[in-house]
Structure formats: structure tokens, C-alpha cells
Specification:
Blueprint lengths: L1 H23 L16 E8 L10 E5 L6 E6 L5 E6 L8 E6 L2 E7 L2 H10 L1 E8 L6 H18 L5 H22 L8 H5 L4 H20 L1 H13 L3 H18 L2 H19 L4 H15 L7 H10 L3 H26 L1 H4 L8 H7 L1
Helix pairs in contact: 3-4, 6-11, 7-8, 7-9, 8-9, 8-10, 9-10, 10-12
Length: 360
């Protein structure tokens, strides 16, 4: 019994001694790791061309002072900004190389003050850098292809879509054949070309064309032309003003090209029946279509592209464009009445019974 108590006392004393030793013994000395081994450093900037436009997809690489192998690399974003992260720093500052197929390469080395700020703060911005454009054989090849496409469309040697696709094929041919032999012939890669496709615009135009095809079958444009003739009571000057108003409103809500395709046949019929030059009706309608179409987001393909890229809504176009459009239509109407005044005198007025019955 005594031996058991003695053993327990020894264990308790040992435990107490160990606890006191841990509490009052000095902490072990651990050597602190250099700060450079546990940090990353960020170098950033923005790239623009001489016109102030951002340069996208420029290649940026950070090179060590004693090697050609990049320590890190990245590409510039759509707004021209870029950031490159380094996991280690040498004694000397790294070299930042910026390259793009269509611009002059640029190499920068941080000065001593900037390099010390990078080491201390962990980040440093090079600010805005300007790359000079480089005129390469690829530039002249692209220019010749562009002019060729315009000539094919202007002289109607090919359908517009076929001519555009032929030009795009020529660009890829030059890039992938000549560009692989001589890098200066590089124009545009297929992957890069895909980024220029705006699917929102494509599907919006496709949807509009479907709606217009359905509306065309209803005959609403022919009906509105008939109503315009009925309201004008055969007075040609008033008829052209009503047709211009109808065309402007239709072009604001639909595609202006399709609007003119639907308005032209009925305008030809009215002009020939009244004995006046049909161009006196069609040309004012074309002017009204072009002006009226810019008042809304969906009025012209140009507005659709602008709205998609600049994030401008339907109401923004309507509020800001409508006052100018209305003023332009008024001035245009006065010009049309003056320019075609001889045509209006050819028809004295009154409804032609034959034309009225045909339109009806």
C-alpha cells in the first residue's frame, strides 16, 4: 500500500515539474524567413495606340536579367489593361517586353527607385504605354483584300455575303500560309476572328427578319399606301408627305431596307397611274427611311451594332435621336416639295377612279 502511494506521488510530482518547465522555459529560437520567399509581386499597366485606343491581346512577358526564359507572361485585356504576377525577384529588376503583331515591340526595365517600390509595396504600375503601329506586308495584304471586296460589291460581281466571305477566306489564307513562312504577313487568326462576332446583333437581326416576313404577308404596307392616297384626295404634294411619314415611322420600328422593298412597288404603281415620275415618290421615301430609321435601336443595323457595343438602350436612342429626326424630316419635306414642284403640277388633283379601284 505504501509503495503504491509512493508511486502515485512520484508521478504527480513529475507531471507538475514538466508543466512548470514548459511554462517558464525560454521559447525556441526560429530564424525568420525572408519576406521575398512568401510574397508575390504585381506589375501592371495599360497599352494604347497613338490615337489613344486600347490595344487588346498584346503579349506581355517579364524576363529575368540573365535569362531569356520569361518569369511570367500575360495578354492585355479589351480595355488595354494588363497585370503580370511574379513569384520571385532577382537582384536586378526584370525586363518587361510588350509585343503585338501589328505594333512595334517595346522593352522596359524598371529603374532603381521603381524597383525598390515594387519590392517594398508588392506592386507597381507602369502607367499608360503607347505602342507605335507597324506597317507590315500583312497590313498591305489586308488593305488590298478590303479594296477587292468593296469592288466586288460595288460592281455586283458577287453577292454581298459571298464577297464578304471570300474576303475573310483570303485573310485566313494569307495568315495561315504566308504568315507561317514570313511572320510579317500575319493578319488575323481564326480564334481572334471569332471574338469579333456579336451574336446578340446576329440573332436580333434574324428575329426581326422573321417578324417582317410575317408582317409582309398581311399586306399592311399596301393598305397604308392605299390609305395615304385616299387621305390625300389625289393631291400629289400631300401624298408624298404622307408616304414620307409612313416610311419614317415604319423604318423606326422595322428594318429600313425591308421597308423600302415593301414601299417601292406600290409607289411605282401610284406614280405611273398619276402620270408623274415614280422617283418623285421613291426618292423622298428613301430619304425618310434613312432619317427615320436612326431614331430607334432597331431602325438600322448600324444602330444595332452601336447599341450592342456601347450598351445603349432602346429608350436612349428614342429620347436623344427623335428631336433631331423630326427636325430633319421637316426640312427634308420642304426640300422635296421645292425640288419636285414641277412633278406636282402634272397632276391637278382629285382621285383617279381606276387607280382607286386597283389599290382598293
Amino acid at each position: 500500500m505504501r509503495s503504491l502511494l509512493k508511486t502515485r506521488c512520484v508521478k504527480q510530482l513529475s507531471l507538475v515539474s514538466l508543466t512548470l518547465l514548459l511554462l517558464f522555459s525560454p521559447a525556441p529560437v526560429v530564424s525568420a524567413a525572408p519576406a521575398d520567399q512568401s510574397l508575390t509581386w504585381l506589375i501592371s499597366g495599360q497599352i494604347r495606340d497613338p490615337q489613344g485606343q486600347p490595344i487588346e491581346a498584346a503579349h506581355i512577358a517579364a524576363l529575368g536579367p540573365n535569362t531569356d526564359e520569361p518569369l511570367a507572361e500575360t495578354e492585355s485585356q479589351e480595355d488595354g489593361s494588363w497585370a503580370i504576377r511574379l513569384d520571385k525577384l532577382d537582384v536586378d529588376a526584370p525586363i518587361i517586353e510588350i509585343s503585338h503583331a501589328h505594333y512595334v515591340d517595346q522593352a522596359l526595365r524598371l529603374d532603381e527607385e521603381s524597383y525598390q517600390r515594387l519590392r517594398t509595396n508588392g506592386s507597381f504600375s507602369l502607367g499608360e504605354l503607347v505602342l507605335e503601329r507597324q506597317i507590315t506586308p500583312g497590313f498591305w495584304a489586308a488593305a488590298l483584300i478590303f479594296v477587292g471586296v468593296l469592288l466586288l460589291i460595288a460592281f455586283e460581281k458577287l453577292h454581298n455575303t459571298t464577297a464578304a466571305l471570300a474576303g475573310l477566306s483570303a485573310v485566313f489564307l494569307v495568315t495561315n500560309v504566308l504568315g507561317n513562312i514570313w511572320p510579317d504577313y500575319y493578319i488575323l487568326s481564326f480564334e481572334r476572328a471569332l471574338t469579333y462576332i456579336n451574336w446578340e446583333v446576329i440573332f436580333l437581326v434574324m428575329g426581326m427578319m422573321i417578324v417582317i416576313a410575317v408582317i409582309e404577308r398581311t399586306g399592311i404596307f399596301q393598305w397604308t399606301a392605299f390609305q395615304a392616297y385616299r387621305l390625300s384626295r389625289g393631291r400629289t404634294w400631300l401624298l408624298v408627305l404622307i408616304l414620307m411619314l409612313i416610311t419614317a415611322v415604319a423604318s423606326a420600328l422595322l428594318d429600313n431596307f425591308t421597308t423600302m422593298l415593301l414601299m417601292t412597288p406600290i409607289s411605282l404603281q401610284i406614280g405611273l397611274a398619276l402620270g408623274i415620275n415614280p422617283l418623285a415618290l421613291i426618292i423622298p421615301e428613301v430619304l425618310a427611311s434613312n432619317v427615320g430609321g436612326i431614331s430607334t435601336l432597331i431602325g438600322t443595323p448600324t444602330n444595332i451594332l452601336i447599341g450592342a457595343y456601347a450598351d445603349i438602350g432602346f429608350s436612349d436612342f428614342l429620347v436623344n435621336q427623335t428631336p433631331g429626326v423630326v427636325l430633319a424630316l421637316v426640312l427634308m419635306a420642304l426640300y422635296v416639295l421645292f425640288h419636285y414642284r414641277e412633278e406636282w403640277r402634272k397632276h391637278g388633283g382629285g382621285i383617279s377612279t381606276t387607280l382607286y379601284e386597283r389599290l382598293e
